Description:
Blueprint: E1 5-6, E2 15-18, H1 20-31, H2 35-47, E3 56-58, E4 67-70, E5 76-82, E6 87-92
Amino acid sequence: xxxxxxxxxxxxxxxxxxxxxxxxxxxxxxxxxxxxxxxxxxxxxxxxxxxxxxxxxxxxxxxxxxxxxxxxxxxxxxxxxxxxxxxxxxxxxxxxxxxxxxx
Length: 103
């Protein structure tokens, strides 16, 4: 699952780990001009994955245990948090809950 990490400076922040699919989603975000918005959200999340604003939404049903943050009206950052390891797993960044595969 590990593809890229956002490095933390002081060890108090969460480590962000991108799935293979989320890494591919970066290209789509960039071509749509949404990459800067996604980066802003990811930087805030690295400090606290449950920080508000921007709002987050716990997912339900088959996606229980995952969270979502809005990049724009259509696309979401879908992620899972491991509090014990202080890690955030970014599962998708170019979707509205379609084709979400996680472990």
